[in-house]
Write a structure and sequence with these properties.
Elements: H1 3-14, H2 21-30, H3 40-46, H4 56-60, H5 67-80, H6 84-105, H7 139-159, H8 169-182
């Protein structure tokens, strides 16, 4: 799935229970952080025509899609979260929400899948794939993103905060005010 879809799914998960801003940020980011290994595409593109291209994206994308990294992220959330236990559990769930999203809807345009080495760093014997995986640009991914975006607007209206709070409190307040003014009396 796209990073935007992962981000929105994490945001929605973070809003399933009352949490403070920092904890919502940790849960939201947990649904995106498995793709940090995707940043290797920058080095790969920049070295593509060289004698020694760096295939960091081709070789390593989805390597961090594993239980070891999930536990590390949950441990970090436990260490820095306000509501430690709740935040760590939701971070672990958000990480796995990302994995589930990739498992069902991240096939490449050429039909290629990136198997996820779920048991790393303990074993690479089990690689998660699903034969029914739809393409990254398939309509179900667009539908899921659209529904998540609509739910984000509803939550902004009802709860008074949006994903913009992760960047700027002022921008978040302006966005919530705009949504509430636009849809006043409809929710």
């Amino acid at each position: 799935m796209s990073p935007i879809t992962h981000f929105l799914s994490g945001w929605l998960l973070a809003n399933t229970v009352p949490m403070e801003r920092r904890d919502r940020a940790l849960v939201t980011l947990s649904a995106v952080v498995p793709d940090v290994d995707g940043l290797g595409i920058v080095a790969e593109i920049l070295t593509r025509g060289s004698k020694h291209p760096l295939l960091w994206w081709s070789d390593y994308h989805h390597v961090l899609h594993n239980v070891g990294f999930a536990v590390a992220c949950a441990g970090l959330a436990f260490a820095i979260g306000k509501r430690r236990g709740k935040t760590a559990l939701l971070v672990f769930a958000g990480f796995h929400l990302h994995l589930a999203g990739d498992l069902i809807g991240a096939r490449g345009p050429d039909g290629d899948q990136w198997p996820m080495p779920y048991l790393l760093p303990f074993s690479d014997a089990w690689q998660l794939t699903w034969s029914g995986q739809w393409a990254l640009n398939a309509w179900p991914n667009f539908l899921i993103t659209g529904v998540a975006l609509a739910a984000t607007f509803v939550l902004a209206y009802i709860r008074g905060h949006s994903p913009l709070e992760l960047i700027s409190i002022r921008a978040d307040s302006a966005f919530v005010r705009t949504v509430r003014n636009r849809f006043r009396g409809r929710a």
